[in-house]
């Protein structure tokens, strides 16, 4: 059975077990080893929760002093999260006399998923619309709210509690991901959500709970506990070996398109294998043909105060002075003053060309684009 407080079929892992049902049971025997990124995300959520509760004039304890990864960026990101939640709540109050807002609310969707539960970051219940707002602190992959399985599971749990109390007909899903400058929103009708729950969620959840179904690899492997050793993933990625590492001119357009579709997954898989092998080597395992050595490192100052005193004593300045970044300046001046004083000098240059799948929401560039040096 899953550890207390953690659902085997959690909402956050729904994209994985919906696509690869047997992965849920397969990963049970693996210990949870939260990465630094996961811990940072948890801390950002705690800070965001505190700020929203304070904005709602509810009792809350400031966690800042206990946060290992607290920094200016986290402070700004959680300010933005608080702002968007309060704006969503204000919009609800305009349309409903008694909307309800809950922060870090546990929801139970076990009517469709065996022992299924999770925690919604912000949940706003009002006549007409149920809003689920999810804060993503990570900046690795942009998360889309469109038909987002995690948020739909949260919505089902919320409907189980409030569908008989409020006249809800639409579910509004919101992803706030400030480090990717990503605010994604999606509306789904309540009836459509229930249909998805019955026709797709429930059957896949029953398979996953039994450890049955077909293995399938894809972007959902990213956070799977078994990703390093999964044979199905290895076999899928090694299919690219049939191209025998030919150079691009010897491949057809269709072959290149197939490789492009799988390349990111292949690179991710290879990096996972390398990381796993290193971790095991550090723990004492020996890999045939490989050895553990000390990597390269850069020089660093061991005693800053002593260095400052020594350099200053010979009449030299040991410090460099440079302009604060845009985010730091906005924090220093405040948003209003920032826009008033220097807003006109802030520009956002075009990003470098990147090749993405057609499903990407960004507009295609002109074919005559020329990158400036």
Radius of gyration: 25 Å
Mean residue pLDDT: 87
Report how far the terminal alpha carbons are from each other. 57 Å
Q: Give the proportion of residues in helices.
A: 40-55%
Proportion of strand residues: 5-15%
* SSE topology string: HHHHEEEHEEHHHHHH
Got a strand count? Answer: 5
Strand arrangement, largest sheet? Answer: 1-2-3-4-5
Low-pLDDT runs of 5+ residues are none
For the record, what CATH class of the domain at 14-210 applies?
Alpha Beta
What name is given to the CATH topology of the domain at 14-210? Lambda Exonuclease, Chain A
Q: Judging from the principal axes of the Cα atoms, what is the shape?
A: globular
Q: Pairing-aware structural class of the strands and helices?
A: alpha+beta
- Give a quick account of the main beta sheet: strands, pairing sense, barrel closure: 5 strands, mixed
CATH architecture of the domain at 14-210: Alpha-Beta Complex
Describe this structure in words.
- The chain has about 375 residues and is α+β, with helices and mostly antiparallel strands.
- Among the domains are: about 15-210, Lambda Exonuclease, Chain A, CATH 3.90.320; about 225-280, no CATH class.
- Helix content is about 40%, strand content about 10%.
- It has helices spanning about 15-20, 25, 35-55, 70-95, 150-160, 190-210, 230-240, 255-280, 305-315, 325-335, 335-340; strands at about 100-110, 115-125, 130-135, 170-175, 180-190.
- It has a 5-stranded mixed β-sheet with strand order 1-2-3-4-5.
- Helix 3 crosses helix 4, helix 7 crosses helix 8 (about 255-280) and helix 10 crosses helix 11.
- It starts with 13 loop residues before the first helix and ends in a 31-residue tail after the last helix.
- The model has no long low-confidence stretch (mean pLDDT about 85).
């Amino acid at each position: 059975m899953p550890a207390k407080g953690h659902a085997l079929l959690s909402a956050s892992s729904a994209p994985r077990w919906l696509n690869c049902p047997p992965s849920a049971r397969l990963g049970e025997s693996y210990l949870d080893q939260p990465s630094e990124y996961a811990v940072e995300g948890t801390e950002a959520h705690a800070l965001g929760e505190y700020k929203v509760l304070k904005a709602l004039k509810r009792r809350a304890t400031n966690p800042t002093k206990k946060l290992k990864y607290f920094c200016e960026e986290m402070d700004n990101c959680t300010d933005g999260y608080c702002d968007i939640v309060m704006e969503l709540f204000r919009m609800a109050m305009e349309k409903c006399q008694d909307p309800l807002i809950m922060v870090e609310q546990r929801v139970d969707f076990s009517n469709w998923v065996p022992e299924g539960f999770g925690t919604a970051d912000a949940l706003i219940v009002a006549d007409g619309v149920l809003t689920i707002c999810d804060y993503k602190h990570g900046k690795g992959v942009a998360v889309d709210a469109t038909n987002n399985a995690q948020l739909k599971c949260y919505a089902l749990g919320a409907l189980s509690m409030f569908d008989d109390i409020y006249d809800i007909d639409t579910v509004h899903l919101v992803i706030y991901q400030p480090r990717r400058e990503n605010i994604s929103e999606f509306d789904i009708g309540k009836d459509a959500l229930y249909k998805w729950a019955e026709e797709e969620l429930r059957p896949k959840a029953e398979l996953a709970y039994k450890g049955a179904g077909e293995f399938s690899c894809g972007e959902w492997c990213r956070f799977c506990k078994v990703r390093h050793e999964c044979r199905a993933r290895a076999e899928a990625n090694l299919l690219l070996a049939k191209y025998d590492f030919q150079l691009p001119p010897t491949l057809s357009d269709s072959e290149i398109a197939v490789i492009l579709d799988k390349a990111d997954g292949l690179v991710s898989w290879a990096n996972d294998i390398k990381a796993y092998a290193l971790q095991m080597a550090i723990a004492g395992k020996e890999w045939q043909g490989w050895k553990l050595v000390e990597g390269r490192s850069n020089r660093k100052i061991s005693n800053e105060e002593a260095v400052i005193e020594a350099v200053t004593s010979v009449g030299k300045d040991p410090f460099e002075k440079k302009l604060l970044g845009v985010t730091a300046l906005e924090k220093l001046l405040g948003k209003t003053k920032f826009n008033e004083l220097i807003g006109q000098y802030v520009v956002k240059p075009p990003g470098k060309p990147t090749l993405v799948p057609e499903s990407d929401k960004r507009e295609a560039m002109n074919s005559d684009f020329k990158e400036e040096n």
